[in-house]
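Suppose a classmate hands you a notebook page containing two proteins, each written out with its sequence and a corresponding row of structure tokens. How would you begin to make sense of it? This section walks through that situation. The first entry is reproduced here exactly as it would appear on such a page.
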Amino acid sequence: MVPGGTEVDVQVTEPVSSSNANVGDTFAVHASSDVVVNGWIIVAKGAAGVGEVISVQRAGSHGHAGTIGLQMDWIFAVDGEKIRLTNQQTTQQGEGKEGESSTVTIVSWIFLGLPGLFAHNFVKGRDVVVDSTHTFQEYVFDTVHIAATTQENSGFAH
């Protein structure tokens, strides 16, 4: 049994950019580390999943930076089941604690300095790019049952 609120860290597989992404686009994600519950691996490092672009604003003139909103939808468990993800960590009492980002808006800012007070009228803002260097802290949406077959390596030879 995998309780809702179990942490799952994910990364995008390919870069997602506000310059060419559209609302509704899906993208591949993968688990950045094993997810272990009670000594059993329930999501293996590298497990595939899917996220979705939920908002996008392209960079514009006057130094206006691009933004992109991403939502992580699900990831495969070791038994092939899809585990729904959320950015809300819930406790057994059902109380929510805001996660780092599932539905996250990522903003790129340009710092133009004093000359930028006037030059920004002629400068195009930067688009934001999310790549595999950014890890998203996600959580299992609700309690699921997974048929785990591999125990976490305890560091001892068997």
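The notebook's second entry, a different protein, reads as follows.
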Amino acid sequence: MDTNCLELTNTDLKEIFKEREKDSHKGTYGYVGIIGGCIEYTGAVKLANMSSTALRAGCGVIRVIVPKCIETSIAPYLLEQTIFPIENDEEQKMKFNKEQIDAALEKLKAVAIGMGWGKGRDNEKILEYILQTKEIPCVIDADGLNTLSQMNLDILQKTKCKVILTPHLKEFERLSKIPIEEIKKNPIEIAEKFAKEYKVILLLKRSTTIVTDGTVTYLVKRGCPGMATAGSGDVLSGILVGMLGYHEANTKIVAAGSYLAGMAGELAQEKYTDISMKASDTIEMIPEAIKRIR
């Protein structure tokens, strides 16, 4: 392991996933939200929310923020979660509406944006508005990253949000404009430089995941081949935003979320095999992973 990189210890993890006080309630562990979904990609948001990923990771309440056109298709799958529809345009993509976005994000401790969001013409306006006006941790993934890659990244240096970016190599290539082959030659240094320049926490998904803010870097060596399946990234985002409901947004907490996702995936692979497991199996194993960490 690189001498400048850190590794989470059992003590760190036990403290992060410690047992809760009896005198606590859902508000103690935070209201969080996930913004995403469009008529083509309802499944990603269902996976990140319907399957209770964020709740499994420990937040108190999860708010699913989707375009109104898919409200009825997602609502039947939401049990413990709440739903907040945003007006959609004629292309059935989420529409920028300042008042609705303000209401959707009210009282939230953290938000994740991008899962199944598609290529809406107002995506940039929505993301820009959140970055410019909200003071909450913001996990940007999937189509949120694709949207961000088309914007001026200087917005990240001025944002009020604590931004967590979770790209795989291709998404990071789009963001950084650095070819994948070059990234592969020196991933840690390139990730650290990017995170420091843009003042973000970068979680670069690889066989060894790199989590860095440019000053502190963790290498997470958890996960398995069975996680190479649709929706695994959505599960990670759900875990991260769930943990940010009751933890400070810092590099260690993001690394711990990656560790938890990887361990849950390994347990799912043991049960279902590397060929047959699917992303929802990882969600199923989150409780067992927390038990083992404890």
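A careful reader of the second entry would note: The chain has a mean pLDDT of 93.
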